[in-house]
Design goal:
Number of strands of chain B: 10
Radius of gyration of chain A: 21 Å
Oligomer: heterodimer
Number of strands of chain A: 9
Strand order of the largest sheet of chain B: 1-4-5-8
Shape of chain A: globular
CATH topology of the largest domain in chain B: Butyryl-CoA Dehydrogenase, subunit A, domain 3
CATH class of the largest domain in chain A: Mainly Alpha
Order of helices and strands of chain A: HHHHHHEEEEEEEHEEHHHH
Structural class of chain A: alpha+beta
Distance between the termini of chain A: 10 Å
Shape of chain B: globular
Number of domains of chain B: 3
CATH superfamily of the largest domain in chain A: Butyryl-CoA Dehydrogenase, subunit A, domain 3
Number of helices of chain A: 11
Distance between the termini of chain B: 31 Å
Number of helices of chain B: 12
CATH architecture of the largest domain in chain A: Up-down Bundle
Largest interface: A-B, 49 and 54 residues
Structural class of chain B: alpha+beta
Bound molecules: flavin-adenine dinucleotide
Number of domains of chain A: 3
Largest sheet of chain B: 4 strands, mixed
Strand content of chain A: 15-25%
Helix content of chain B: 40-55%
Helix content of chain A: 40-55%
Radius of gyration of chain B: 22 Å
CATH superfamily of the largest domain in chain B: Butyryl-CoA Dehydrogenase, subunit A, domain 3
Order of helices and strands of chain B: HHHHHHEEEEEEEEHHEEHHHH
Largest sheet of chain A: 7 strands, mixed
């Protein structure tokens, strides 16, 4: 087992850090970017495409870079560090991951090629009102007619659903045949999208489908539940990496503030009641970082079952750490931590959003709790 | 010791319950139930309804609208109000400046301000904190200097210069009560005075601060050579710190909203019951969720009983030092319940910016902004670190 990055991975990290800090080292730039639609900076998105970042996880024959979870994790951490609002996680890792898992080779090449080049912003329309992170669809249904497939129902929240150039929509197949996946262009008849901002400055949409003609992704009528489950787990690991990046900076910012803020004639760091709290934040961050790195390695080398378990374990640890660090970061700042102008509250908000996007501590704990009788002990070195 | 309410107190409770659930405008109560931000108009209408019935300022001296209730009745009043989704009377008026004027103000000040304060004809803002004077409030730098050209000695007007910040709802403020430095030469606590300032005075500027939930509830308030008549000084010059301590003690008691937290938790159970987890079961049937709710219910019960026990012990009207326990734990539980609601909302909690066209329920869309907003509760009113310090020092003698 080796937790260190190799030279190429280090170089990737530095390149991405350089690019993103040009855009967002000044927090005011991020505020500006999220204030208006599409909620991110198209130029930064194009630069990420030019650097190859948007094609990182996809096979070379699909137009991607053929990199693995470790590289995706590195990028996600950098995205998290500056809260870059570009939809790397939801569009590239999640929606792209679904296409990579389910698409026929020609579909993969077409769609993922366009995602990699930055020409196509992909969105996964999977969440349904009332559903909680399940890998299946129920309320949006697919119907096979003579002219092809149509979809009906409501998807919400769909990350970046209003800006998307192409939607990947999950839908319940006829005759309880599971969940199918479909490609739907945004100008399809019967499709309407209502976009809005999420609390962390991100974007989501309600997507209404009324007999919308749709192209099956992969073999028509095939159940894609396993593909969705895998893509969700892979995205959870990437999200954990993004959260680790965000937590690093939240802690760093908080320590910096304890040094610079003065009350009672002394810097706040004079008060051990506060520095010990920062030390506890560090402990949370370290543990979350370890479990996230482990899950990233499992994702690179493990079986789908092992990956599902690792994603849940990292998800749980990171969710708890994110709450702890996010809440304490605001508290140790005092009033300034509550303001939109200062960065720290946005870290807390984004950590909360990351958790609820793909599954929270409750989901992961429920899963793990249901399986405690299956093993004697948990061994990370398999 | 006795568990039951006396027949009279039980009747009193019924009376309160009936009033709050039938007389206070329903749009106001609905907005509270949905955890929406209340409009200025809603707060004003609600408080005037209470005041007309003698229920806005029961803890004031009877002469000025108080009711001479027992501590228990005050508690019942407060709890029933929150249970019925009635917003408590504006704290700046009812719990802060009102009692200060009633206790330390001149007869003229009482007559001029107290009736209008009880009825929310005057909307008060609290001008204590400054950018560099938060927890260390006594280091405040806004100055008030006598202008000898306007009179001699104590008859001279003040000229106020400086900046206050975090002024809650200052955008609605008619008047602001401020701590100002009137003597820079003495120990910092000894040179502070308590001034009432008309916010329409020339030289007062209010600027909004956006918070992390996107809302605008706090402001910066700037004073540039603002003239304040000598009559607007409360009590004695340079005794403002004592009045502020009196006020902050009252504030602590008021900011532990046990009743409102209990109500949100009760609502949360209904919301949990409305979230399906498959097989005809809801989130409320889920053991992890149920355990979390049970923990919170138990802690709230312990807190409510502590509030009753502590209140019962502070017959002299001064805040009991254990009021710090109420503030500390009360805000923690308020935050914990808001966090539970976010988790119940699950993926729908992301949709905070969606309008009514959303397919997701309003309670779920409101969950995260409400959670983020309530992070403030452990910061204001004397941060929870400061409360721990008070407990350690004043109660434990450490
Ligand atoms: C939403 C909101 C509304 C407010 N409304 C008003 C209002 O209407 N009027 C008004 O006057 N003020 C208001 N306040 C201000 C509030 O009272 C201050 O924020 C509070 O006193 C803390 O001060 P600060 O923000 O400067 O934090 P700081 O004092 O800088 O504190 C930063 C952190 O250090 C901790 N800390 C500070 N000193 C110590 C110590 N000695 N030991 C241990 N820990 C310490 C604090 O607890 C906090 O965690 C409001 C604040 C908020 C957030």
């Amino acid at each position: 087992m080796d937790f260190s990055y190799d030279d190429e991975q280090q170089a990737l990290r530095e390149a991405v850090r350089g690019l993103l800090s040009r855009s967002y080292a000044d927090f005011e730039n991020r505020r500006r970017a999220v204030a208006e639609d599409p909620g991110f900076d198209e130029k930064t998105w194009s630069r990420l495409a030019e650097m190859g970042v948007l094609g990182l996880p996809f096979a070379e024959e699909d137009g991607g870079m053929g990199a693995g979870p470790v590289e995706v994790g590195i990028v996600a951490q950098e995205v998290g560090r500056v809260l870059a609002p570009e939809p790397f996680l939801t569009s590239v890792v999640l929606a792209g991951g679904v296409v990579a898992g389910a698409g026929r080779s020609q579909q993969r090449a077409e769609v993922l090629g366009a995602v990699s080049s930055g020409d196509c912003l992909l969105a996964l329309a999977h969440a349904e009102p009332g559903a909680r992170w399940t890998p299946s669809a129920t309320s949006v249904t697919a119907t096979a007619a003579s002219g092809g497939w149509t979809l009906s129902g409501v998807k919400e929240p769909v990350p970046h659903g209003a800006r998307a150039d192409l939607l990947v929509v999950s839908a319940a197949l006829p005759e309880r045949a599971g969940t199918g996946l479909f490609l739907v262009p945004p100008d399809a008849a019967g499709l309407s999208r209502t976009g809005y901002a999420t609390h962390d400055g991100g974007r989501a949409a309600r997507v209404d489908l009324d007999d919308v003609p749709a192209t099956p992704l992969g073999a028509p009528g095939e159940d894609a539940t396993a593909v969705l489950a895998f893509a969700l787990d892979a995205a959870r690991v990437a999200a954990a990496n993004e959260a680790v990046g965000a937590m690093q900076v939240a802690l760093q910012t908080t320590s910096g503030y304890l040094e610079s803020r003065r009350q009672f004639g002394v810097p706040l760091k004079t008060f051990q009641a506060l520095t010990f709290r920062a030390a506890d934040m560090y402990v949370s961050l370290e543990l979350a970082t370890s479990l996230t790195a482990w899950a990233t390695m499992v994702l690179a080398a493990g079986s789908p079952l092992e990956i599902a378990e690792a994603a849940a374990r990292a998800g749980l640890q990171v969710a708890r750490a994110g709450r702890h660090i996010g809440q304490e970061a605001i508290q140790l700042h005092g009033g300034i931590g509550m303001t939109a102008e200062y960065s720290i509250g946005s870290y807390t908000s984004h950590l909360t959003a990351l958790e609820h996007l793909l599954g929270d501590a409750h989901l992961h704990l429920g899963r793990l709790a249901g399986a405690v009788a299956d093993h004697d002990e948990v061994d990370p070195l398999q | 010791m006795q568990l039951q309410l006396s027949a009279e107190d039980a009747a009193f409770r019924d009376e309160m319950r009936t009033f709050f659930t039938t007389e206070v405008p329903t749009d106001v109560r609905e907005a509270v139930a949905e955890r929406r931000e209340l409009t200025q108009d809603q707060l004003v209408r609600s408080q005037r309804t209470l005041n007309a019935a003698g229920l806005a300022v029961p803890h004031w001296p009877a002469e000025w609208g108080g009711r001479d209730w027992s501590a228990l009745r005050r508690h019942i009043w407060h709890e029933e109000m929150q249970r019925a989704c009635v917003p408590p009377p504006l704290a700046f008026n009812a719990s802060m400046v009102g009692p200060v004027i009633a206790t330390f103000g001149s007869q003229e000040q009482k007559e001029r301000f107290l009736p209008a304060t009880a009825n929310l004809d005057i909307w008060w803002s609290q001008g204590f904190s400054e950018p560099d004077a938060g927890s260390d409030l006594a280091s405040l730098r806004t100055t008030a200097v006598r202008d000898p050209s306007t009179g001699s000695g104590r008859a001279a007007d003040f000229v106020v210069t400086g900046q206050k910040t975090w002024t809650t709802l200052g955008q609605y403020g008619d008047w602001i009560f401020c701590l100002v430095r009137t003597d820079p030469t003495v120990k910092k606590q000894a040179g502070i005075s308590f001034l009432l300032i008309d916010m329409t005075s020339p030289g007062v500027t209010v600027r909004p601060i956006e918070l992390i939930d996107g809302g605008h509830e706090v402001n910066e308030v700037w004073f540039e050579d603002v003239r304040v008549p000598a009559d607007n000084l409360v009590g004695e010059e340079n005794r403002g710190w004592d009045y502020a301590k009196f006020l902050l003690g009252n504030e602590r008691v008021g900011v532990a909203p046990v009743g409102a937290t209990k109500r949100v938790l009760a609502q949360a159970k209904q919301w949990a019951g409305s979230v399906s987890v498959g097989d005809g079961r809801s989130l409320l049937d889920d053991p992890l969720t149920a355990a979390r709710v049970a923990e919170l219910e138990n802690e709230l019960l312990a807190l409510e009983l502590t509030a009753l026990r502590v209140v019962a012990n502070s017959a002299d009207g001064k805040p009991h030092p254990a009021s710090s326990v109420l503030k500390l734990k009360g805000t923690e539980l308020q935050q914990a319940v808001s966090e539970l609601v976010v988790d119940l909302a699950g993926p729908a909690s992301l949709a905070s910016g969606a309008g009514d066209g959303s397919a997701l329920p309003e309670w779920a869309r409101r969950a995260t902004p409400a959670y983020l907003n309530l992070r403030k509760a452990s910061i204001y009113g004397g941060s929870n670190e400061i409360q721990r310090q008070i407990i350690a020092k004043t109660i434990l003698g450490l």
